[in-house]
What does this fold into?
Amino acid sequence: MPFIKLNQPKYLKETSMLISDNDQDSAYFEVAEVPSYLTGGKNLLLIGGNNNLLEEGSNIEVEITDTNGNPIFHEVNQYIEFGTNKRAISIYVYESTPSGLGYIVIAGVAAKRPNGNSVPKSWQNTLNVKWSKRIRIYPFRENNTRVILKTPPVIKIKELLREYLIPTGGVTTAATESLGSGLNYSFADGSGFSPGVGFGYITSPTPYFSASMVGSTISFTNINPLGATLSEFGPGGQTTDNYWTTQITEVINDTKAKVNSSYAPRVVITTFVGDKATGQNLIQILPLNVSGFNSADYSHAYQKDIVWTSQTTNIESWAKVDISELDPMVGDLKKIKILKRSQGFQQYELATEVDLDNKELLAKDDEFALQGLLGNFSEQSTIDDYWEASYTGTSTSVGSLPITASNSSKFMGAVVISGSENLTSNFANNRESANIQFKMKSSADWDGDGISTDGVKLYKNGSYQVSFKLASEDVNDGLEGSKIKVYLSGSAIATPSETTDRLLIDTITNNGSAIVSPVNPNNAARPAMKAVKGSKGTNLAVSNNTNTQISQQPETDDSELVYDFNTYQNGTASLIFEVVSGKWFLADVSFKSVKQSGFTPNHTSAEFRMFADTQQNDVFDFKFELYDNQNELIHTSFTQSIEWAGGNTSVTGNNNTIEGSLVIGNGILMKGITAQ
It folds into this structure.
């Protein structure tokens, strides 16, 4: 669950007051745009006060409660509706807010009764009048509140020049077909028979699977189902399904893959009915209770990984756009249209559309313009270029660096962090003070904009999440079990004190070799939140598993650990993994802006090819159109007069023709000849 704001209860609904003013047209409060119901996200309530009946200079109190009587967070904004004295109230409904009937209660200090008489002295200068309304709450219903922006979005644009790519060895489908035997199958839940629905797992006794196999089709023949009991059906029993085709949907590691269906064989039962003269065969087809199969023959067609080569003479122009401070006061933004125009033609054209969803931030386009996930460790170069490891807290030199190598034995595209055995002789009285530190490099181009930073760029008041997968193996390193600590660091992170540069988000221990799984996998792998007081005077909330104990357990598909946090200022953030003991396998490290139902993520980005550049060294204008969930345009921003180098014109092939003339500079004229 992303960062959640809370109000302290005021108990306005339960408090008795002198005057109950529940008319739709309140005499005391100017209530406008009261929603018919509350949806997920930020809902709008406009309220003002009647100066003739309320005490001058007194406060108006507001409280919104859910079906259990608990406060729903609201925020009083500086925004006042044009031409009125009504102030905007933002009502936050989160995914965790219970659905049902709630209450909106407004209370104030009345100086007079509706008839103009003064209130009794015992009720003066205190809350003595309230207005209330029952309201239904739908946390997952689309937020169609009209959007009011706090500020226009902050937009940064940068040109990227990239080389055109071709497959090494020429254009090819790069398809391969693997024939073999020895693959095994088991059901997802291990319970045995499943009637052809759900999914299951294919396993191999030796490394076989690769990431490129996702989406491929695999067929099995000569299947001998495990647990099949044909004998109970008599001599007429015969399996009908010793051939099965399925599709790989996820490669978990090099020996295990998930498929999109479950093997559900049937048995044909043939029984003779009647005598030889008048009888006939009775044929029945029944499901066969099995637990999977082993060592079946298979045929597998999949796409091999393509190695790309750049054409250094063919340069393309791309735009990288970073958009922040998108968080509206109320309402929800759905998408952004980005339009561009050359000042030479003055006509805008659509460049791209950006759907405001969770956006992977730990990624960049490489020199080949291929998006690289910097938390995927399939390539050793990613580990070497963007991450670093060292021994810390040791009393003596260990003589070498920790081992950090690409490894897919636990998770596909993981890094194994090992070398804690070298810590056994250090700090004999306090072994836990010595550790291996694996962290994001403090100087690398994390955002693909050509500028090195000490982490991923984040923006103030944004809700973000980090996630990753972990597995461990025990080693002889002086401590029992495996232990790792996970920290957030960077200028965007509010640390618990001025004496530390990092925030602990979890301490994880494994007793035995295990895949680390969430404490509560049925809750989107998001444990309860813990508020941490920031040293900068702000509150930082983190989904926190602190001191989580993980025991030996089977591998699950929900092995992703997720932590949500808020930023307090523009800056950077990075992850630090501190291995205290054991050998650890880390995979799928991710930074994302959080998108929950009804709320707009604070930060997004886009990259797009500029296409059909009119000329090099041009000047471009960009227009950004923000749309709500009803596809209504609610705001337009402009960025003008951006100098643009542009790509080049590359002529390839052998049959290009110039008919007419071509002028080179001011002095060379080339004329084409039209073929007769």
